[in-house]
Write a structure and sequence with these properties.
heterodimer; A: 138 residues; mainly alpha; Cytochrome Bc1 Complex, Chain D, domain 2; 7 helices; globular; B: 257 residues; 2 domains; two-stranded antiparallel ribbon
Chain lengths: 138, 257
């Protein structure tokens, strides 16, 4: 009976359930991210790789991509938890996404030897990037 | 006079239909994605750096080698006649083998069987240069892979590889060259990946290079393990890409950034 009641209450709160499925609310490293470090990761085309596909408010990097949405306003469109999920493994939202999974190695094939069993970014680097993206509110 | 008028009218219809075919074909050579300076470099044989390799290839064509003491020309004669259209067909099944090979392998088969000379190093400058010389004889001709069941099987294998995601970045060839062609990757326009100009002189390489070398560059970018040298996967992808570009004119030797 209590279970049924709980289920009814949950069904009244679809927003919170969806938010759970749509985000990773807690820091992966247990530490807060640093926006300045995050900006440097985003700008670096061999570390974050972000600007290969996205454009963003980083004017000193002239060669930016347009395969993916601009990072401008990312902090307005998404919560830090939603940004974190999209970085960790965007396949969970869209299996056909072109966005690489930055913190998952499952389901990858023929990974180059020097990247085998390694994630693209570390837990703390993900937090730093989330912290930077959350500042993009224009 | 009437006959002349008819000929002019027919020529007009032909030109118009060709223009329509070009206008409606959504396929674009990577040449069209380059700026005017690089297009001019490719178009001008005195400025195209690949033409230096073509000259070296022409010398190799005429050189008597091997225990047979024969040159390519001794059997094939004038390359402008005998090699016209050849490069537009490869990879293809060729005797004495019973499976598709690429143009470089075909040249080396001639070296080892008819000239009785050692094979040229795969992707080495000598073989690239001779391939470029042979390919030049098909400049402007439509890419025309032969109808062959063994080649078709290889094309199908290549199509599968083209769509398969791989590497740490979990991308396929199709992720960029089908789904996002024409968009900018790090500021550079993503081409549709039609192999119309190989071997190409790539400014980034400062050298003439093969389609295999270009494929390896993409694999490294995807953080995927490149296949080992001579692997069947490269040939399968080449066979698929040539079939995908069927009918497009060869514009080799190409220049690319």
């Amino acid at each position: 009976m209590r279970g049924v009641l709980a289920a009814c209450l949950l069904s009244l709160l679809p927003g919170s359930v969806a938010a759970q499925q749509d985000s990773i609310p807690h820091s992966l490293s247990g530490q807060p991210g640093d926006p300045a470090r995050g900006r440097a990761i985003v700008a670096n085309r061999t570390v974050g790789l972000c600007l290969l596909c996205h454009s963003g408010p980083i004017p000193e990097e002239r060669f930016q991509g347009n395969l993916a949405p601009s990072l401008e306003g990312a902090g307005l469109r998404s919560t830090p938890g939603q940004l974190r999920l999209r970085l960790v493994d965007a396949r969970r939202l869209n299996p056909d996404t072109i966005m690489p999974p930055y913190y998952r190695t499952e389901g990858l094939t023929r990974v180059a030897r020097n990247f085998q069993d390694k994630t693209i970014l570390s837990a703390q680097q993900i937090e730093d990037v989330v912290a930077y993206l959350a500042t993009l509110k224009d | 006079m009437i006959r002349l008028r008819l000929a002019v009218a027919l020529a007009g219809v032909f030109c118009a239909s060709l223009a329509v075919a070009q206008a409606t074909d959504p396929r674009r050579s990577g040449y069209l994605e380059m700026g005017p300076a690089l297009q001019k470099m490719q178009d001008d044989d005195t400025a195209n750096p690949a033409m230096l390799f073509v000259q070296a290839g022409a010398a190799t064509w005429a050189e008597k080698v091997g225990t047979a003491g024969k040159s390519c020309a001794d059997c094939h004669g004038d390359a402008a006649v005998s090699m016209r259209g050849v490069a537009a067909r490869y990879p293809a099944v060729t005797p004495p083998l019973d499976r598709p090979v690429d143009l470089g392998r075909r040249i080396n088969l001639c070296r080892t069987t008819h000239q009785q000379a050692p094979a040229l190093e795969a992707e080495g400058n000598d073989l690239l240069a001779l391939s470029a010389f042979v390919t030049l004889q098909s400049r402007g001709l439509p890419i025309a892979p032969p109808e062959d069941s063994k080649l078709a099987a290889m094309q199908a294998q290549g199509a599968d590889l083209y769509k398969r995601r791989q590497g740490q970045l979990n991308l396929s060839c199709a992720s960029c060259h089908d789904d996002n062609a024409g968009r900018k990757l790090a500021g550079a326009t993503i081409p549709q990946a039609h192999p119309t100009g190989y071997p190409i002189y790539r400014l980034e390489w400062q050298a003439l290079g093969s389609l295999k070398r270009r494929l390896r560059n993409c694999l490294v970018g995807m953080r995927a393990e490149p296949w080992e040298e001579g692997a069947a996967e490269y040939l399968a992808l080449e066979a698929y890409l040539m079939d995908r570009a069927r009918g497009m004119p060869l514009d080799a030797p190409g220049v690319r950034p």
